[in-house]
Design brief:
By secondary structure, the chain is of the alpha/beta class. It has helices spanning about 5-25, 30-45, 80-90, 100-105, 110-115, 135-150, 175-180, 200-205, 230-245, 255-260; strands at about 65-75, 95-100, 120-125, 160, 180-185, 190, 215-220, 250. The longest helix has 22 residues, at about 5-25. The protein binds zinc ion.
């Protein structure tokens, strides 16, 4: 079930419980308040593009330009990432790679190639671990460790894009990220190519409902398993790019999608 649906169900249930208590006794008002705060906190944690305190977490550009941001999580992978880079190069497409620190340490030449060929490198954490319960200190440590592991040329001024594993966050993550020079970014179109549903299904999922300013989430590796194949994503990618370009849209990096038009402060 999609996270957004789960989030809405949670919110409705908490509101129903709270309202029932209010009708039962005046003390129910405080119970309702508690449940509402809890409901919003749950939304913030499980909904990657939801921002509880108004910190800007861009997930869709407001641009009218015909641009799509391709993003790849969990790499670099020694077999599949170079294949993806070859396809991007052959089709004059750009992308943003959210790399894992421990993998970037093993394959620095792939990270270098990404940047040399005009792609953007973002942070997906040092390990592919859960971020929900990380304290501010642990989050900062994770970011420092990633910075030490990844040789990155900053392309977007003074910040690096950050996407946590599974898009998970907690109420203090946006502050810690901003303080350390990172900016959270979600996605608008999760393709779930990591399920390996077949290249035709991946193409179909990627293209259905795609519109200007969309951010497509794909994977060039598996976050937890080195041996998991991403060949289906590799096989699907040329058709995805060709269809986007046939609709007069360009595949660009996140910074091209947002920075050029001042969407990110
Ligand atoms: Zn991931």
């Amino acid at each position: 079930m999609p996270k957004a649906v789960i989030a809405k169900i949670c919110l409705c249930v908490t509101l129903f419980i709270g309202l029932a208590l209010v009708l039962y006794h005046w003390f129910g008002f405080f119970v309702l308040l508690f449940w509402m705060i809890l409901g919003v906190a749950i939304l913030d944690v499980i909904w990657p593009s939801f921002s509880m305190f108004g910190f800007q977490i861009p997930h869709r550009s407001r641009t009218g330009r015909s641009q799509i941001a391709l993003t790849f999580d969990d790499g670099p992978h020694p077999e599949f990432t170079p294949k993806i880079l070859d396809i991007l190069k052959a089709n004059q497409a750009r992308a943003t790679f959210f790399v894992l620190g421990y993998r970037a340490e093993k394959y620095p030449e792939i990270v270098e190639r990404m940047q040399t060929e005009g792609h953007e490198v973002g942070c997906h954490g040092y390990h592919h671990k859960r971020w929900i319960l990380k304290s501010p200190r642990l989050i900062a440590q994770e970011l420092y460790r990633w910075l030490a592991a990844v040789s990155i040329r900053r392309q977007s001024g003074d910040f690096i894009w950050l996407r946590t594993s599974h898009g998970q966050k907690n109420p203090w993550l946006p502050w810690i990220a901003k303080k350390n020079g990172f900016k959270l970014c979600a996605w608008t179109k999760g393709v779930w190519d990591s399920d390996n549903p077949g290249e035709n299904v991946i193409v179909q999922r990627a293209l259905s409902g795609l519109s200007k300013g969309s951010i497509l989430l794909l994977h060039d590796a598996d976050g937890d398993c080195e041996n998991e194949s991403r060949m289906q994503t590799v096989l699907a990618l040329p058709e995805i790019i060709r269809s986007i370009q046939a609709n007069q849209m360009d595949c660009v990096t996140l910074s091209n999608l947002f920075n050029d038009i001042g969407d990110v402060q």
